[in-house]
Design brief:
By secondary structure, this protein is an alpha+beta fold. The chain has one domain (about 1-145): Collagenase (Catalytic Domain). It contains 7 helices and 3 strands. A 3-stranded mixed beta sheet has the order 1-3-2. Helix 1 packs across helix 4 (about 35-50), helix 1 (about 1-10) packs across helix 6 (about 125-135) and helix 5 crosses helix 6 (about 125-135). It is globular.
Length: about 150
């Protein structure tokens, strides 16, 4: 749902994004420099979800799940090749449904091969996370999609 809501705002109300969030700050200034990047990748994820279930694998408590990094899910990449499965750790199910939705939005970005650029640009998964969350969060979504009122 987060992907669909974020895409809806980008496709239907793009002119409202900059005035609402402003053009400052790492996250939305990156979006404003390359909105088509986010539109394309969000559309890819929404289409993938509409085709059917995204492959998930229960990773249990081994591999990356056993690290000290609080990993609850991950997508494997090998020399730039993104494996198309989200691996879910046992601890993923300890989180609230909202936290699990945020985690899935993050992993969907990984499926789009969004990485860990230290430049905080379009190839930074944490910028992706903030943009998807910012556009889909209920209060922001309502404000961005509300009918314009006449005074």
């Amino acid at each position: 749902m987060k992907m669909r809501r974020a895409l809806f705002v980008i496709e239907k109300f793009p002119e409202r994004i900059a005035p609402y969030f402003g053009s400052v700050g790492a996250n939305f200034s990156v979006y404003l420099k390359n909105p088509s990047f986010y539109k394309t990748h969000l559309r890819n994820r929404v289409k993938a979800c509409e085709k059917g279930p995204i492959p998930l694998s229960c990773a249990g408590s081994w591999g990356r799940c056993a690290t000290d990094r609080d990993t609850v899910a991950y997508v494997l990449t090998t020399f730039g090749y993104v494996h198309g499965t989200i691996n879910v750790c046992k601890t993923y199910f300890d989180d609230s449904s909202n936290v699990r939705a945020v985690t899935m939005a993050h992993e969907f970005g990984r499926l789009e091969n969004i990485g860990d650029s230290e430049n905080f640009d379009t190839n930074n998964i944490y910028v992706w996370d903030r943009i998807v969350e910012g556009l889909s969060e209920s209060r922001n979504f309502t404000a961005l999609t509300a009918p314009k009122t006449m005074f």
